[in-house]
Specification:
single chain; Immunoglobulin-like; 30% strand
């Protein structure tokens, strides 16, 4: 066999074994994107190249052991994850017909009322161009908890194709990790009164019509309201949306919220000195409601620039003893910037028509701090709002009991754990003390190395204080006995303190193999999507194929 044949065969063998061992990465025409994320739920949406009836999302805290199956069978999928823990980072990936996407992470919303929120906002970005990509990359670097999109999400006409090429492709990395809450722009209304916008996004539906055109939601102690300004100024037919219905929703919604901070966002600006100027219908129809119910900040787009007003009241600046509302135009998300044609009016604090960027907002306790971050990382504008907040009500306390089966033994040692939390609907997370985590009421873990491991268990329920407990697992070297500490490592006592952190003696009759949370017995836990042979079964097959090729070449010498 000459060297060229030998090299070619070796290369083939390496490719076969490497390919089978690593599995096949799933290349989606549209990467997964996050929608409707809340304290205990999230929607993972994605598009496939062909119909698939076995798509699913694998997810978990530090792993992807829990499975949520898609109820769709075609190319368009939106999988709802439930039973999540508030303010928790989850890892997830998509399985579809035997292929898997690379793992991504996202964070759930905090418990409603939590007094720390970080969000980003910008509009007029959906071009697919380099400036949009720079803004998206800068936003992801700042790691906001959510992204508020101020309209003109897909130029020039909001078609199905433009949503793919001008929104989901250039902003894929951001949308896979940060949930987007959008409002429609006038460019979305060019195509069938924003129907592709509604087809591609999964937004809250808490208005009387059950429509996604306008809505509200809480994130921590901030109440957000999205208004469809296209509808309000007459771009929508009455059957789609009406000004009267939207005003009724906004008034009822703002009157009902108990959150101390209120942020409203829509596309057409109430106050602007840019090319389009102020939209007087939005100012005069909704401004009085904002003032009546204590809205703190109004965010808009439409004009391709940045501008911040002074606190405004009615059609003028608020007096020194009056409470006004600052109105912002944040339209530098990626579309071509437009120069101001007039001098800066007296009500305008600051404006800029030269820099693309986004608004980064932190709301901590009674202080809202915002800054316009440019794509080069510089800050164009910054301001803060403050208010007195009442003392937060005490959160209810709960209890957590943990039992462990086989709390000691030689390596490799399997320990089984059961948690019992008093709070209804509590989510239980485990840290096994060796860098591995899991989630669920019943879990088991294999310790491969000798040592004494402190296992920390945390139960989290919405509206309650998280409760933790610890227990100890002792693993000896293979063939040795428990070194003996004078304590039962399964009692959950804290070494060195003598205090019981809330655990009890090992439960008799504990199942040796507890069910994995979120996985139904009989699930395909490795590949999903109807793939009957995994990589481990394919590697020997690859070896046989290579061996056959070797024999065939030798016979031909």
């Amino acid at each position: 066999m000459d060297r060229t044949k030998s090299l070619s065969l070796a290369t083939l063998a390496a490719l076969l074994v490497t390919g089978f061992a690593s599995g096949t990465a799933l290349a989606l025409p549209r990467d997964p994107y996050l929608q409707r994320v809340g304290p205990d739920t999230a929607t993972v949406a994605f598009r496939l190249a062909s119909n698939c009836s076995s798509a699913q999302v694998r997810y978990g805290v530090g792993n992807t052991s829990t499975v949520a199956r898609s109820t769709d069978s075609a190319r368009v999928h939106a999988v709802v994850l439930t039973g999540l823990s508030p303010a928790t980072t989850y890892t997830y990936s998509v399985d579809a017909c035997g292929e898997t996407t690379p793992a991504k992470t996202f964070g759930t919303a905090p418990v409603t009322g939590t007094r720390r929120v970080h969000f980003a906002a910008v509009g007029d970005f959906g071009t697919g161009g380099s400036d949009q990509k720079k803004v998206a990359a800068s936003m992801l670097t700042n790691k906001p908890e959510l992204f508020v999109a101020l309209g003109d999400n897909a130029y020039a006409s909001g078609t199905e194709t433009e949503f793919q090429t001008n929104l989901f492709t250039p902003m894929a990395a951001l949308l896979a990790q940060v949930p987007m809450f959008a409002t429609p722009g006038n460019h979305e209304y060019v195509t069938n009164e924003a129907q592709p916008y509604l087809d591609n996004l999964y937004l809250p539906t808490n208005n009387a019509e059950g429509s996604e055109r306008y809505y509200s939601f809480d994130w921590g102690h901030v109440h957000f309201v999205s208004i469809d300004s296209n509808c309000a100024i007459g771009l929508a037919s009455a059957s789609k949306c009406s000004l009267a219905a939207q005003k009724a929703f906004v008034e009822k919604d703002l009157a009902a919220t108990t959150q101390p901070w209120k942020v409203v966002f829509f596309h057409h600006p109430s106050w602007s000195s840019g090319e389009h100027g102020s939209q007087l219908t939005m100012r005069r129809q909704f401004g009085p409601l904002f003032e009546k119910y204590g809205v703190d900040l109004v965010l808009t787009g439409h004009d391709h620039d940045y501008e911040r007003s002074k606190p405004m009241l009615g059609d003028a600046e608020a007096g020194k003893s009056e409470r006004g509302i600052p109105y912002l135009v944040v339209g530098g998300g990626g579309a071509t910037l437009r120069a101001f044609a007039t001098s800066r009016p007296s009500w305008s604090v600051l404006r800029d028509d030269a820099a693309h960027g986004f608004l980064d907002v932190d709301v901590v306790e009674g202080t809202l701090t915002a800054k316009l971050v440019k794509t080069d990382g510089g800050v164009l504008d910054s301001f803060s709002l403050t208010k007195e907040l009442p003392a937060p009500p005490p959160l209810p306390q709960g209890t957590l009991d943990v039992t462990v089966g086989d709390a000691s033994g030689p390596a490799p040692h399997t320990a089984a754990f059961v948690a019992t939390a008093s709070q209804a609907g509590a989510t239980v997370a485990w840290d096994f003390g060796d860098g591995v985590t899991a989630q669920g009421l019943q879990v088991e873990h294999v310790y491969t190395q000798p040592g004494s491991y402190t296992v920390t268990t945390t139960a989290t329920a919405q509206g309650a204080t998280p409760v933790s407990a610890t227990t100890v697992v002792t693993v000896t070297a293979s063939g040795t006995t428990d070194p003996g500490t004078g304590e039962d490592p399964g009692t959950g006592s804290d070494p060195g303190t003598g205090e019981d952190p809330g655990t009890s003696n090992p439960r008799p009759g504990l199942p040796s193999t507890p069910a994995t949370p979120g996985v139904t017995p009989g699930d395909d836990s490795e590949g999903g999507g109807g793939c009957s042979a995994g990589p481990a079964a394919l590697i020997p097959a690859a070896a046989l194929l290579v061996a056959g090729l070797v024999r065939r070449r030798r016979r031909g010498r």
